[in-house]
Specification:
Layout: H1 5-26, H2 28-48, E1 53-62, H3 73-78, H4 86-97, H5 100-109, H6 112-116, H7 136-146, E2 147-151, E3 157-164, H8 167-225, H9 230-261, H10 268-289, H11 296-331, E4 337-342, H12 355-383
Antiparallel strand pairs: 1-3, 1-4, 2-3
Helix pairs in contact: 2-12, 4-8, 5-8, 8-11, 9-10, 9-11
């Protein structure tokens, strides 16, 4: 039987096409979910993705060591400078670097929009990205993805990393942020010093008012009682009373002697009258000192309270003045300062993207997605009802 070679060739080609179509149909999902994304990843990260340079720096917020002031115990209570720890200041600086204000201030020094819209970058890396517009909010979101600050709460050291598409631009943004942060620390110092001086001045004013009121009350008391110092006057009264008691004792001794030696002596009645008059004077002096509500003893308690209040108010004023003077001295000094531990470097080679790692990540993610879909499809087929 004779076979036509053309028919045989056409049959072979048809069989080959059918096998190829069957294979394509069988592996179509693998090619769609694994091979195609992997080829795109190789193409993008291997040949299209722009180089990214990272400039790094480190800084710490420090405060000068404070020596204890030579103040009284009251002064130590009044010494409220309003200063926080250096860690708190560092947190404020970190928060500022990641804020919209930092981006707005930095844009006055460096054209951030132009830096991240550089022609050195590919269309998916530069700003604005295809899914963004050219607004400030989108620029801020892009800025946050390129600038990171990592504080270390243990050492107080903070590390600043800035990504850009050229080494000089990455370094320029890093330097600009550090300069702005130093300005922020200086403003915080000024605010702290102003607050400290204001509070100290208010305490001085309050203490002065208290001293004036204490002196007015003490003067009013002296005018109303017509007594300059009840304690001194009481000592004078007691001195007179003691002298009268001595005189009375002498007169009684004289009377006793006369009565014993000459009971009918004509001077005995006069002597008794002198003793009675002396006793009356002693009782009068004693009543001035004690025994009545207007006595010097009762007035002395009120006087001592007023005197103690005046002395305490005076000590409080002296301590407040010392606190104010110390606040003014500290205001002339820098309370906190930003120290650059590592200056912003000029990167000599791109560190991002990690091309091989990114390609492998795309392949791994594609395989995982394919395997999950395959397992779901197998499960659905196994539980599908038989027709």
């Amino acid at each position: 039987m004779h076979h036509d070679p053309d028919l045989q060739r056409q049959a072979g080609e048809t069989a080959t096409k059918n096998k190829a179509l069957a294979m394509l149909k069988r592996w179509r999902w693998f090619g769609l979910f694994v091979i195609l994304p992997s080829l795109i990843g190789v193409l993008y990260f291997g040949f299209i993705a722009a180089d990214v340079y990272v400039s790094q720096s480190s800084f710490v917020i420090k405060a000068p060591s404070k020596q204890s002031a030579n103040l009284t115990s009251i002064g130590s209570l009044l010494q409220r400078t309003g200063l926080g720890s250096g860690q708190e200041q560092s947190n404020e600086v970190v928060g500022y670097m990641q804020s919209r204000d930092a981006l707005a201030d930095l844009s006055r020094k460096v054209d951030v929009r132009a830096v991240y819209s550089s022609t050195e970058a590919d269309v998916f890396s530069r700003f604005p990205q295809p899914w963004h517009d050219d607004s400030f909010e989108d620029l801020f979101s892009f800025y946050r993805s390129k600038v990171s600050v990592m504080p270390d709460p243990v050492s107080g050291l903070s590390e600043l990393k800035v990504q850009a598409f050229t080494p000089k631009e990455a370094q320029a943004i890093n330097l600009g942020l550090l300069d702005l942060s130093e300005d922020l620390v200086n403003r915080l110092n000024e605010r702290i010093n102003e607050q400290s001086i204001t509070e100290a001045e208010e305490r001085v004013e309050t203490a002065q008012k208290r001293v004036r009121e204490a002196r007015i009350r003490l003067g009013a008391y002296r005018n109303s009682t017509r007594i300059l110092d009840p304690q001194q006057e009481g000592m004078g009264v007691m001195a007179v009373s003691n002298e009268l008691i001595t005189q009375e004792a002498a007169l009684r001794a004289q009377l006793s002697q006369l009565q014993r030696m000459a009971p009918n002596h004509p001077s005995i009645p006069a002597l008794r009258e002198r003793i009675a008059a002396t006793r009356q004077q002693i009782d009068s002096q004693t009543s001035r000192a004690v025994g009545t509500t207007d006595g010097l003893a009762s007035r002395l308690s009120e006087y001592e309270n007023l005197l103690v209040e005046q002395e305490f108010a005076t000590q409080l004023l002296n301590a407040a003045n010392a606190s104010l003077e110390q606040a003014r001295v500290e205001a002339e000094q820098q309370q906190y300062y930003l120290e650059r531990v590592v200056e912003p470097n000029l990167p000599d080679a791109p560190t991002l993207p990690n091309r091989m790692k990114s390609i492998l990540a795309v392949i791994f993610a594609s395989l995982c997605l394919y395997l999950v879909g395959w397992m779901l499809a197998v499960g659905i087929r196994e539980h599908a009802p038989e027709s």
